[in-house]
Amino acid sequence: MAYHLNSEPSDSSPPAGKASERAPELAPRIHRVLIVEDEVFIQLDLEEELRSAGFAVVGAVDTAEAAVRIAEAERPDIVVMDIRLRGARDGVDAALDDSQRLCLRQHR
């Protein structure tokens, strides 16, 4: 049997009356995103754009310390992080800390 992602049967699939033999539909995976940005308007814009693109925003914070704490609790798939942040630590420091603690990959 052959099935497409949209679950329409191909020529080799069972007749229409045999629903029990069909593969279940695959739901698209929603990626969970953490936003780390200290400029409130940029943070709000990022959150709106990501949500409208189908991402689930699991947090939006403005310090490196909060980013590490939320990343450990929520285990996001993606972290969008500014370099310059409020507080003693910057985004680079937080990204290095997150990547070591959570085994994250960094993309530039």
Characterise this structure.
- The chain is of the alpha/beta class.
- It has two domains: 1-26, no CATH class; 31-102, Rossmann fold (3-Layer(aba) Sandwich).
- It has helices at residues 40-52, 64-74, 91-102, and strands spanning 32-36, 56-61, 78-81.
- Helix 2 (64-74) runs parallel beside helix 3 (91-102).
- The longest helix has 13 residues, at 40-52.
- 19% of the residues are buried.
Helical coverage, percent range = 25-40%
Strand content: 5-15%
Strand tally: 3
User: Overall 3D geometry?
Assistant: elongated
Question: What distance lies between the first and last C-alpha atoms, to the nearest angstrom?
Answer: 41 Å
Any idea what the CATH superfamily of the largest domain is called? Response regulator
Strand order of the largest sheet: 2-1-3
Indicate how many domains the architecture comprises. 2
Rounded average pLDDT: 77
Please give the radius of gyration in angstroms: 20 Å
* SSE ordering: EHEHEH
> Low-confidence segments, ≥5 residues, pLDDT <50?
1-11
